Amino acid sequence: MGQKKLIKFAAIKSYENVLEYPQGMPGKWNAFFEKLATGPYPISLDTLEMRSSISPKSGTPAQPLTLELACGRGEYAVGLARLFPEQNFLGLDIKGNRIWKGASIANKDTIKNVAFVRTQIEQSIQYFAKEEVSEIWITFPDPQLRLSKAKKRLTHPQFLRLYQQFLQPGGIVHLKTDSPNLYLFTKTVIELYGLTLITATDDVYGSAFMQSDQWDERCAIKTYYEGLNIASSNRIHYIQFQIDKALPIAKDETLKEMIAAFEVTETHDAKRERTHPKTEE
């Protein structure tokens, strides 16, 4: 492991706004963010109160919790936290050296309604109680273009079933991607399983969409890799939907057959890997 990575891993271990594989957190996130905002530090996770949607002390609704999955540097989590100080935001990613960036910005700017969890997305059910999460953002994930890796796509029914266990009824999932394949795949999943599609556009920054009543100001937040603009000719795709129906496993094989015919298109991420090999961040 490179020296820069070691320094960043050491740093996040001292950050109050970064938790690595935390135990016993379901139902405690509202209490955690209260402690993050007020102290004392270090925060003892074992002593945090479990909360329902209504705070037992004040009788007021708990602050909504939004997740950014595979958050990378956490630009969306931090950006959303700036826009909505009355809500809480949590970025999840396995790459601690990337999480360091967003966590460091939040600490520097004293943004206390955003935090990060270092873990695999597959383990996310361990960290949240039923209906504890209000919304999910998936921003520029690995599109996993090979058919053999389709189940690793973060909008595959295998993952949606996971999210459904802690997402509130009516909770919204947002996908922002430069991959036409992932965009079409997600639309296919929504249609096949009868989920509610709220918004879909293959050009989120196009004037027609930005001037429509479907435009969401949160779409204007840009990630580091999007800002590189390596694939400047590619459009940014955006989908907003609800996981409001059952996702029968029996349909997964039908989905596999349907997506086998998808055209594989080189994406922003693929070009980045080809022209800009990974370096220590």
Compile the SSE list and pairings:
Blueprint: H1 3-12, E1 18-20, H2 29-38, E2 65-69, H3 75-83, E3 88-93, H4 96-108, E4 114-118, E5 133-139, H5 157-164, E6 167-177, H6 180-192, E7 196-201, H7 207-210, H8 224-228, E8 237-242, H9 252-259, H10 268-275
Parallel strand pairs: 1-4, 2-3, 2-5, 3-4, 5-6
Antiparallel strand pairs: 6-8, 7-8
Helix pairs in contact: 1-4
Q: What are its keywords?
A:
single chain, 281 residues, alpha/beta, Rossmann fold, eight-stranded mixed beta sheet, 10 helices, 17% strand
Summarize the structure.
31% of the residues lie in helices and 17% in strands. The protein is α/β, with parallel strands linked by helices and 281 residues long.
Explain what this protein looks like in three dimensions.
The chain has helices at 3-12, 29-38, 75-83, 96-108, 157-164, 180-192, 207-210, 224-228, 252-259, 268-275, and strands spanning 18-20, 65-69, 88-93, 114-118, 133-139, 167-177, 196-201, 237-242. The chain is of the alpha/beta class. The protein has a single domain (3-275), classed as 3-Layer(aba) Sandwich (Rossmann fold), CATH 3.40.50. Strands 1-4-3-2-5-6-8-7 form an 8-stranded mixed beta sheet, with helices on both faces. Strand 3 (88-93), helix 4 (96-108) and strand 4 form a beta-alpha-beta unit. Helix 1 (3-12) crosses helix 4. The longest helix is centred in the middle third of the chain and has 13 residues, at 96-108. The radius of gyration is 19 Å and the shape is globular. The N and C termini lie close together (12 Å).
